[in-house]
Design brief:
0% strand; nucleus
Length: 81
């Protein structure tokens, strides 16, 4: 009987640890990732809707890719001189 209580207690502690770390529940870990993404994307802290945040993220990625192309072209132009 005591073993049963002990194992039940261990299982409950393990489940509480999963909740605290965000592992085990898919929505918790997604929320953590979305929170981190909000910090990385300019203007992302104001966006509370995931679809808007993901759209803004895609736009920002395109912006960065265009900036890289521009800087490479600029570098090539000046390296030929």
């Amino acid at each position: 009987m005591e073993e049963s209580r002990s194992s039940h207690r261990k299982e409950r502690n393990r489940m509480q640890t999963k909740k605290k770390t965000g592992r085990g529940s898919g929505s918790g870990s997604i929320q953590i990732k979305m929170r981190k993404l909000r910090v990385l994307i300019p203007g992302g802290r104001r966006l509370n809707q995931p679809d808007l945040l993901l759209s803004k993220t895609a736009d920002y990625i395109m912006h960065l890719e265009l900036r890289i192309r521009f800087l490479k072209a600029l570098s090539n132009m000046y390296s030929l001189s």
